[in-house]
């Protein structure tokens, strides 16, 4: 401590307070060339709040009691985890406790003790969880993560559970973390909690999948327009055409060489001639004469689609979504071209095709999936885009749903449920196809090694069979690693490739895994959700799972928090994919290689450590309705961590202890 009286701090104005340890010539002021005898630091007994600052000053005197000027001052803190100090003597409180702030001049030191006190919440609740347990708080509550032992780890999710689809309801979520000193044991070295890379196979350039996202966004708009068009038309079960009994393949006639089809996707359009391109007992592909002259369907692509549908889509739709109707009695799904898909979409199905002439005079009275010719033909390119195959599964599911929802008089599911389950059909068809061509069985959890081995075996190109699986991985990366995100909408300000399709696939993949009969077996559950008698929307989800939508959301958050970590698996979890591994397969583009791993906590640093220590800090970002922001905190065993939340309603805080 100082050996001089405090009024000597006025000599600070004559010192140069810069960093460094080495002394310089003290000059002739006051003390001439005398040696520094003592150093005084001011103020004494200072106390600040965590996050606040305190300016310290230092003065030196020589052996004669005179002021020493022109000397270098070096500042240090005895405990930088409590308070740090800059080269100019500005101390910043980092956690509750005490730290000695020392100034050294020409090898002589003086110091003062700084007390740092926490800003404590009036309504603070201490978290008490065992590994694998979860608890939920209201967003206006303040919580305390206990110091515990070094390595204790928590995931803290801020969520806005809602079934609303309002894109403009975006709020800023701020989590303020305050470290509070504990009497726990000494700090142990923290290990990076991220999983070690389990493979050394070449990764994938995902550029083509990202390019497909632009088409998906246009197609999402097209589907939104068509569903609204259908609502405006007032289609009902009274005007729905009956499905005919399916004929055995032996009794099926070949499809006609030409058909008159209205491909305007309206009830007022006129028919044009469409010529047959390829067919089998399950599907027939046509194209209108006008687009056939300008952009003819590739016969190779058509035959690939015919075989893929019969091999992997038909039975999947029958087993998991209740199958397709057959109102025209031909036993086949029809595919044809259209340049009238709204919003420059690339594929669509139209409920008007299932209505009688009194309700939709321009309807085709047949089950038809429409494709943009240029998109269809990308399967024939040298670097083939197999997206149209998954898109066919997606549209086939829509046709099944559009019929079933009218038949039961329950109304259509909201778009986020309908599109998420259609993406589920797309992924399920791909997973079945992949398993049939050397991939892991659908009953096993697939990971990065499975995916990259299959790519490597195909001369480092993605196969048509596994395309839909990889496509789902790309989507969930963007959905969870960018903000604002949402399960039910594309919030204002979200990433250009964010899509609630991907978020809803992730949600329904969880439900299928957690509530299905077993790994890879969700048939009865998803069939029930798509059934005519099942209520629309979240009421239907509750009916088939026995769990409310809000609780399903919370269960998914817990499964995400514990997924592929050192923590125990929850009772309901993901079983089809190791998502931490399976999403870590890309080299490019940048949007598919964000720092960190699934589920991409916002505490992830540029160095890809996804966990923050129990230190003072703030984490802020935008959230949409039904949005998710994950945080990951690891204790060093010395500080507890107080967390305060500021976020618009509706919102909740979900804390899961990992270890």
In brief:
This protein has 659 residues and is an alpha+beta fold. The chain has helices at 207-233, 289-294, 299-321, 373-376, 387-408, 415-436, 448-457, 467-481, 500-515, 523-530, 538-545, 549-562, 579-582; strands at residues 36-42, 46-49, 53-55, 57-62, 74-77, 83-85, 90-93, 97-105, 108-117, 124-126, 134-138, 142-145, 153-159, 170-181, 204-205, 258-261, 272-279, 283-288, 333-337, 347-348, 368-371, 586-588, 612-613, 617-624, 628-634, 639-646, 652-657.
Q: Would you write up a description of this structure?
A:
The chain has 659 residues and is an alpha+beta fold. It contains 13 helices and 27 strands. The two termini are 44 Å apart. The N terminus is likely disordered. Strand 6 and strand 7 form a beta hairpin. The chain has three domains: 112 residues, Immunoglobulin-like; 121 residues, Sandwich (Jelly Rolls); 379 residues, no CATH class. The strands form seven sheets. It has a six-stranded mixed β-sheet. A five-stranded mixed β-sheet has the order 10-12-26-14-24, with no helix packed on it.
């Amino acid at each position: 401590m100082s050996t001089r009286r405090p009024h000597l701090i006025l000599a600070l104005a004559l010192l140069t307070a810069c960093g460094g340890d080495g002394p310089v010539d003290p000059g002739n002021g006051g003390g001439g060339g005398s040696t520094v005898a003592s150093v005084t630091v001011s103020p004494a007994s200072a106390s600040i709040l965590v996050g606040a600052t305190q300016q310290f000053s230092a003065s030196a005197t020589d052996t004669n009691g005179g002021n020493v000027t022109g000397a270098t001052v070096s500042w240090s803190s005895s405990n930088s985890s409590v308070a740090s100090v800059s080269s100019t003597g500005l101390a910043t409180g980092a956690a509750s406790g005490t730290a000695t702030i020392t100034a050294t001049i020409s090898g002589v030191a003086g110091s003062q003790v700084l007390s740092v006190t926490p800003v404590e919440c009036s309504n603070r609740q201490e978290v008490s969880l065992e590994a694998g347990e979860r608890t939920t708080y209201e967003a206006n509550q303040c919580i305390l993560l206990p110091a515990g032992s070094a390595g204790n780890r928590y995931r803290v999710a801020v969520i806005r559970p809602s079934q609303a689809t309002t894109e403009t309801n975006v709020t800023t979520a701020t989590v303020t973390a305050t470290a509070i000193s504990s009497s726990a044991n000494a700090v142990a070295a923290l290990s990076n909690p991220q999983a070690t890379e389990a493979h050394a196979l070449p990764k994938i350039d995902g550029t083509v999948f990202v390019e497909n996202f632009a088409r998906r966004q246009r197609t999402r708009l097209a589907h939104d327009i068509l569903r609204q068009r259908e609502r405006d038309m007032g289609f009902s079960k009274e005007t729905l055409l009956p499905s005919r009994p399916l004929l055995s393949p032996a009794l099926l006639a070949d499809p006609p060489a030409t058909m008159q089809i209205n491909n305007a996707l309206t009830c007022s359009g006129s028919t044009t001639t469409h010529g047959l391109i390829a067919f089998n007992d399950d599907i027939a592909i046509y194209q209108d004469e006008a687009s056939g002259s300008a952009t003819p369907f590739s016969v190779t692509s058509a035959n690939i689609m015919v075989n893929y549908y019969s091999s992997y889509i038909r039975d999947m739709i029958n087993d998991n979504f209740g199958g397709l109707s057959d109102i025209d009695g031909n036993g086949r799904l029809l595919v044809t071209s259209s340049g009238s898909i709204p919003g420059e979409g690339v594929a669509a199905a139209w409920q008007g095709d299932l209505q009688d002439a009194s309700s939709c005079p321009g309807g085709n009275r047949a089950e038809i999936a429409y494709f943009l010719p240029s998109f269809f033909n990308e399967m024939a390119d040298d670097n083939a885009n197999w997206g149209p195959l998954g898109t066919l599964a997606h549209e086939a599911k829509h046709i099944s749903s559009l019929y079933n929802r009218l038949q039961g008089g329950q109304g259509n599911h909201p778009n986020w449920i309908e599109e998420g389950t259609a993406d589920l059909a797309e992924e399920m068809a791909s997973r079945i196809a992949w398993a049939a061509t050397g991939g892991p069985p659908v009953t096993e959890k697939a990971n990065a090694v499975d995916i990259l081995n299959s790519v490597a075996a195909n001369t480092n190109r993605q196969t048509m069979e596994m395309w839909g699986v990889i496509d789902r991985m790309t989507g969930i990366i963007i959905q969870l690693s960018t903000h604002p995100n949402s399960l039910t909408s594309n919030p204002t300000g979200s990433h250009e490739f964010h899509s609630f399709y991907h978020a809803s696939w992730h949600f329904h993949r969880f439900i299928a895994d957690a509530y299905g009969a077993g790994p890879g077996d969700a048939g009865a559950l998803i069939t029930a959700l798509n059934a005519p008698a099942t209520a629309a929307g979240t009421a239907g989800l509750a009916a088939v799972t026995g769990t409310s939508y809000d609780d399903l959301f919370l269960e998914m958050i817990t499964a995400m928090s514990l997924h592929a970590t050192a923590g125990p698996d929850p009772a309901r979890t993901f079983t089809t994919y190791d998502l931490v591994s399976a999403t870590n397969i890309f080299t490019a583009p940048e949007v598919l290689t964000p720092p960190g791993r699934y589920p991409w906590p916002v505490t992830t640093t540029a160095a890809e450590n996804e966990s923050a220590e129990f230190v003072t800090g703030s984490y802020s970002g935008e959230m949409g309705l039904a949005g998710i922001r994950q945080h990951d905190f690891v204790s060093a065993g010395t500080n507890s961590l107080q967390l305060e939340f500021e976020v618009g309603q509706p919102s909740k805080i979900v804390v899961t202890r990992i270890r």
